[in-house]
Amino acid sequence: MVEIPSGSAGAIPSAEVEDVELYHPKSWWTKYVFSQDAKIIAVQYSLTAIAIGLVALVLSWLMRLQLAFPGYFAFIDADHYYQFITMHGMIMVIYLLTALFLGGFGNYLIPLMVGARDMVFPYANMLSYWIYLLAVLILAAGFFAPGGPTGAGWTLYPPQAVLSGTPGGKDWGILLMLTSLIVFIIGFTMGGLNYVVTVLQGRARGMTLMRMPLTVWGIFTATVMALLAFPALFVACVMMLFDRLLGTSFFMPAIVEMGEQLQHGGGSPILFQHLFWFFGHPEVYIVALPAFGIVSDLISTHARKNIFGYRMMVWAIVIIGALSFIVWAHHMYVSGMNPAFGFFFATTTLIIAVPTAIKVYNWVLTLWRGDIHLTLPMLFALAFIVTFVNGGLTGLFLGNVVVDVPLSDTMFVVAHFHMVMGVAPILVIFGAICHWYPKVTGRMLNETLGQIHFWITFLGTYAIFFPMHYLGLLGVPRRYFEMGETAFVPPSAHTLNIFITVMALIVGAAQMVFLFNLVWSLFRGKEAGGNPWRATTLEWQTPQTPPAHGNWGKELPVVYRWAYDYSVPGAAEDFIPQTVPASGSVTREVPA
Amino acid sequence: MNVTLIFLAVIGAIIVWWLAGQRLTSKPWLETGSVQLPDHHGADRQQPPVPAVKIGLFVFLGVVGALFSLAVSAYFMRMASADWWATPVPRLLWVNTAALALSSVALQWARREAEHGRMEGLRPVLSAAFALAVLFLVGQVQAWRELTAAGYVLADNPANSFFYMLTGLHGLHILGGLAVLAHTTVRAFARDVQPDRLRLSIDLSAIYSHFMLAVWLLLFTLFAGWANDFVDLCRTLLT
To answer: I need a surface site. Which of A142, A246, A250, A268 has the fewest CB within 10 A?
Structure first.
């Protein structure tokens, strides 16, 4: 560690960045319900996302029950099964993962980590949450609408999505789904502008971009991507609404439905696929990049070691973000497109593996000879790395056209994307909640309950999704309500299905342990203090825990170093907060 | 998706240009103690920092740009099919275009008046900009009515569908801008007006208005069919 002499660094006045006017709530309602404080909004976002996520969890149970015991549960017929699939997928990808990472962690962590008092547009931030809630309610209304929610599959491919053969196609289902997505995107744009501009304009003095924690880099890049990718879904939803309600033919080809020639003609379903996946593929990284960033911080903090290759990590995040916009058609290899396109998209897809692999190497090298504390956040971070590598490797299989064509629409694909963008980000979410829970509530989570939840979840998800790869290789198709007469699938596959279902029930139930832990620790957890993990980043240096309105005391923090000064040789302690100036012996106030 | 990719390339270039100024090659682990900042926060700043709202507006324009470039991409992809007959362009659109352009000019004028602190000159110009933008919207609705009266209804042909959808989307964005402009105009007439904040919101309205005018001109060339030759040329070059 070489320290560049920096003159009178300690004498820099801290009020150089002009302070912002804060909105001060006047009543209980504006303080806790219609709050403009990013921390409250973050909690609102997170709780709403978790609540709707639990609905999606129950839906996955119902699907698994049907697959393991076909025909046993009378209330699950084919229509319901498709509705469960669709809602499970859409909720998990958009209303849980996107909302939780960007709306939840983004809101809580960006202002605190960059040293701002709040988001730059608090009012728009508040609107963002309430519009998101509206979108969730519209989505959930599908369950109570005549005909039920849409059963078009989460990709909502036309023409089937708006035809009478699909549940909800000619009823309310598809309308509510499309409306909900449009509303969600409007709400997200308001929040997204906040996240981006806060990182650009709200940073504390001394917080250069290259001193930002990787969590902020991940969330920032993901938000920029989301702002550019969500309009594709917006356009697609608007056009499909036109097709369904006003009889246009954007996506609808000439088609005969129930022996009756529809008035549509000439539309291109492939056009929808292009628009959908132009959003859909960046979406994978919109979820993954915040997870990458958070994991980097968890590993560095809990291994007491600076992150290996910080610059590489930043560049990799940016490069992954850029590349993810030119790989969308690898979801469409079997759509009959020009083979030359397939070659192009396979190449770009495989190139993405390079920066991603760099990140994995850097995580492992950060752990190498670190002082690893197997705390809950660390366990989840380690579990993430393993799971992500597994899911990523099968992605290389599927990224090749010749391998993808036979595997497409089998359980192999289901296993792949559940590993890489289902389980892996969820593990990060658990790890991040365990890590920042003490900051949000002032109390530690219960370690025993946390360990029970971790091991059941980690091993259980492997028991669920590993066998699915094998089922896929056998040729078991995805999205099928029941297998029917399929000679090529051996009867043992059915036994495996029962096993997967039992594991899914257990893992789902284990989540109750986590929820119980969240509530129990809120009242009974050990007092955490201001910086229980002895971490360097700014959010742990707030004068109060939980941070008060405005985050910092009278003066904004000044940043003198990067976010990863762990185990600096010669330093008195194994961490030096970002707010500590360079001069050797510094007396630091430990925040209460 | 070519239009979208071109748009993304432009956005990407802006991001790269911005990142290039952010010392991404620095080694933060060696720079302990120094407080280095990008220019707009520097201690020895020459000009005042760009207000956050303005940055926010530019980011928002990026989102709007993505929206329209994707819609236009869809337009070109759908255009390639056999059932496409171009919709005739009502003459009224020329009047509307003029109205929107004049509204933009008026806002630019208001911007200059505000810079020089001439509040009295500001009010009529702002009102004119507002009225012209309203005129544009009324004209667009009238153009829709003419087209439907002539039998070019929404679901008849994909070109019609796109015409109504794109003009509708654009109109909604103008409407949003109008809400902000109305707020600004009312404030300009208020007595206890803060010149700084008024100047900023006029600035923002002008930028937004120029951007939406540019979008409209692109859409107009699209509807009028002038872009077709260009697209055909591109298509031949690509294949």
So the answer is: A246
